[in-house]
């Protein structure tokens, strides 16, 4: 008892600062020095006190101990794995440009499908490139790690972090005066939005705003090029889809977030003078692609002898997509970056009007999903177990077809890969990639 009372005397000056903390209005707050308070503390048995301390220690141990094996779900929850002089040095080296144009590009989603290919292309031509990716577990992290390893070989460092981490983004802008941001990080996939709607709000809305906030506050504001989606056309019935067509009837939450981003981009351009270019991608496919997309999991399931579902309209109408090959999309991204004008603001203040653009990047040649499957069967030399089913109300639309005349005129965008050629390259990569994985796991 005496001991505890002495402890209270020692604690008094430490506890006194707690008075400054406001209590929640309306809630009872005990006076720390009132007899009632002292009585409560003193009446706690010693054993209970030690047990509580012990429990807190165990809890701290679990919270701060590193995982022994990489665990994807745990990794997705990590917020910081950046900082320090070695880390800063790697960022600086990665941002070094050898091209005359002195471009330094921050590529978000660099371990993703499009981000990986765009980063590699930028680096090849001599631009400085720093990648950013949160390596979430939406699909096989092995693919993301594989892309990362290839980029690192070519000198691109991918920072592991989230676009919602403002401190990280500000730090990156402190280290490098990025001339451009190629924003390709997003929660992708149309159908998954029904399972995990909040992930779309987190990445596509909150993450996008966070990125724009940091960009607009930079002393030298970068020009921003970002990935919108063909899905913004939603239930639009004008074909081919032109940038002038209505985009106010999204069929999925994914589409709605991308449409919201187009509005957000307009506001940031208007208020802060940020130069912003949105690119509406049309079902991009190719090597190192996304396993959640139909062409990818159809390939996997056909090879495994598993049935695949081919959607059709309720009146047996054809479901078709304007499948666009990755190399064509990469060229479009680079042309958009090269033609982007500088932002006009600085430190959060607009100094004049800035460029605001939106372009379709499609292939202008829609192909029915049934034909996609026939082409895969031919290339894989395996007959698919097809189940034709009525398209469920899952966010998918019946048909996409890009009008690319604007991108052609202003960016010089011209897709050159038809579905047959593109799928051939994809299948070649797929077989090689999974074959070598199989061999490695057999070791
Ligand atoms: O162009 C776009 O904006 C979008 O393209 C793709 O979305 P999607 O066109 O739906 O591509 P897939 O998911 O690969 O579907 C391709 C086609 O296969 C059909 N499908 C899908 C799944 C299935 O089991 N069966 C089936 O017939 C779909 O209805 C669709 O017509 C991407 O997944 C989106 O992230 C992207 O933004």
TrEMBL record:
Listed InterPro entries: Epimerase_deHydtase, NAD(P)-bd_dom_sf
Which Gene3D superfamilies did the record assign? NAD(P)-binding Rossmann-like Domain
GO MF, one annotated term: UDP-glucuronate 4-epimerase activity
Q: Which reaction does it catalyse?
A: UDP-alpha-D-glucuronate = UDP-alpha-D-galacturonate
Give one Pfam hit by family name: Epimerase
Q: How does it sit in the membrane?
A: Multi-pass membrane protein
Q: Transmembrane residues, as ranges?
A: 47-65
What are the subcellular locations of this protein? Golgi apparatus, Golgi stack membrane
EC numbers on record: 5.1.3.6
Domain of life of the native organism: Eukaryota
Outline the extent of the NAD-dependent epimerase/dehydratase domain: 105-342
Print the keywords alphabetically: Isomerase, Membrane, NAD, Transmembrane, Transmembrane helix
Gene Ontology CC: Golgi cisterna membrane
Q: Which family does it belong to?
A: Belongs to the NAD(P)-dependent epimerase/dehydratase family.
Oligomeric state and interaction partners are given as: Homodimer.
Concerning PANTHER family, the annotation shows: EPIMERASE-RELATED (PTHR43574)
Supply the name of the protein. Answer: UDP-glucuronate 4-epimerase
Organism, by scientific name, is Ilex paraguariensis (yerba mate)
């Amino acid at each position: 008892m005496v001991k505890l009372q002495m402890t209270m005397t020692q604690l008094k000056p430490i506890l006194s600062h707690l008075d400054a903390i406001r209590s929640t209005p309306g809630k009872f707050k005990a006076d720390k020095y009132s007899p009632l308070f002292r009585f409560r503390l003193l009446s706690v048995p010693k054993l209970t006190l030690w047990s509580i301390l012990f429990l807190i220690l165990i809890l701290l141990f679990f919270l701060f101990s590193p995982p022994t094996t990489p665990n994807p779900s745990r990794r997705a929850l990590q917020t910081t794995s950046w900082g320090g002089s070695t880390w800063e040095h790697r960022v600086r080296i990665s941002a070094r440009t050898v091209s005359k144009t002195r471009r330094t590009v921050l590529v978000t989603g660099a371990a993703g499908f499009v981000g990986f290919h765009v980063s590699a292309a930028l680096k090849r031509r001599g631009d400085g490139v720093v990648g950013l990716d949160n390596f979430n577990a939406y699909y096989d992290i092995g693919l993301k790690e594989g892309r990362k390893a290839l980029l690192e070989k070519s000198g691109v460092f991918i920072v592991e972090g989230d676009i919602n981490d403002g401190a990280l983004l500000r730090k990156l802008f402190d280290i490098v005066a990025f001339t451009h941001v190629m924003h390709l990080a997003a929660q992708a996939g149309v159908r998954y939005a029904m399972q995990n709607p909040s992930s779309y709000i987190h990445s596509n809305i909150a993450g996008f705003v966070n990125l724009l906030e940091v960009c607009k506050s930079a002393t030298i504001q970068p020009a921003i090029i970002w990935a919108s989606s063909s899905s913004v056309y939603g239930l639009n019935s004008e074909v081919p889809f032109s940038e002038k067509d209505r985009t106010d009837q999204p069929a999925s939450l994914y589409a709605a977030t991308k449409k919201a981003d187009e509005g957000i981009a307009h506001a940031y351009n208007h208020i802060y003078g940020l130069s912003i270019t949105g690119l509406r991608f049309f079902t991009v496919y190719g090597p190192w692609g996304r396993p959640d997309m139909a062409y990818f999991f159809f390939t996997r399931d056909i090879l495994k002898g598993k049935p695949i579902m081919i959607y059709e309209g309720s009146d047996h109408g054809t479901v078709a997509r304007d499948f666009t090959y990755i190399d064509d999309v990469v060229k479009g991204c680079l042309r958009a970056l090269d033609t982007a004008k500088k932002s006009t603001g600085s430190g959060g203040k607009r100094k004049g009007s800035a460029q605001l653009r939106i372009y379709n990047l499609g292939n202008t040649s829609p192909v029915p999903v049934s034909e996609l499957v026939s082409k895969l069967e031919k290339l894989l030399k395996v007959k698919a177990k097809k189940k034709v089913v009525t398209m469920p109300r899952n966010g998918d639309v019946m048909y996409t077809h890009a009008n690319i005349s604007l991108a052609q005129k202003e960016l010089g965008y011209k897709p050159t890969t038809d579905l047959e050629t593109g799928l051939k390259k994809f299948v070649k990569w797929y077989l090689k990639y999974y074959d070598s994985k199989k061999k490695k796991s057999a070791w």
